[in-house]
Amino acid sequence: MSRVQIGLVSMASAEVGALEELPIDSLWVGGHVASPNGAPEVLVGLARLAALTSRVRVGTAVLLLPLYPPAIVAKAIADVDRASEGRVTLGIGIGGEYPVEFDACQVPVAQRGRRVDEAIPLIRGFWTGEPVTHAGRFYPVDGTRIFPAPAQPGGPPIVVAGRQEPAMRRAALLGDGWMPYLYSPRRYAASVATVTACAAEAGRDLSGFEWFAYLFVNADDDGAAAREELASFLGGTYRQDFSEMVTSVAVAGTVPEVTSRLKEYVDAGARHLIVVPATRTRWRALVDRLIEEVFPAL
For the whole model, what pTM was predicted? Predict the structure, then answer.
């Protein structure tokens, strides 16, 4: 079995340098163009992570690809990949939970999946640094060259996030990895089987494919308090009540409970755990506890 890698989602610039000194493998940033939470813009956040680090892998979790022209994504990611000496991973999703940002970007929300399916191979084409001609429905180009190319040969890995079967098929056919969120271990294992089957049906070899799990985590001596805080955190993020489902879609409880639950995701097939420390009041204390008491057991 390959070693389990650990990543953290970080939004605070002041913490990044200190986080890179911890025994972790990656740092990630998410974001929106227009959401109720006032989230940062993800390409700017990625550039910040790259500038403030020198060792860890840096990635987007996630960039809402249908909101951006593929040429802009290809150019920006190539620039950051070169600046970071090849440490970038592009995590992408289709979004849709906030229709207002699709309106703001003048992108019909109903087209988001089809736009992403067209954009992924086009971005890879741009990353060759050679002229690209593409007669697609949404992004036709004629001899467009975007260069210089990224530092990573062929460009950074493109990891597909999502929850439903179309996202699994997208990962299997177009992606370099799969990154579901708000999943139970059981559902994660089922998604691994679906992605694997879709790839096999298409004759695609998944050697080198990466299996991520995006997990909201809270640990406390009082397990009930940890679950309550995590449910409140998710409720503020997604604008719904998570009190009844927090134990199935996230990881909360005492240190032994959290450790055991994370091991279930590993047993289900996850090899890179992207952890969101789900607290608004004790972020660094929670990170330190996970580093010292939970992650070593994985």
Answer: 0.97
- Domains held by the chain: number: 1
- Over residues 168-192, the mean pLDDT reads 98
User: Amino acid identity, residue 143?
Assistant: G
Contacts 24+ apart (CB under 8 A), 282-285: 283/12, 283/15, 284/15
In percent, the amount of the chain with pLDDT more than 90 equals 91
**175: which 2 tokens?**
């992606």
pLDDT level of residue 135 (50, 70, 90 thresholds): very high
Report the percentage of the chain scoring pLDDT > 70.
99
Instruction: Give the domain CATH number at 210.
Output: 3.20.20.30
Average pLDDT, the chain: 96
Instruction: From 3, 145, 27, select the one nearest 84 (Cα to Cα).
Output: 27
Domain that holds residue 79: 5-297
- CA–CA separation, 147 vs 79, rounded Å? 9
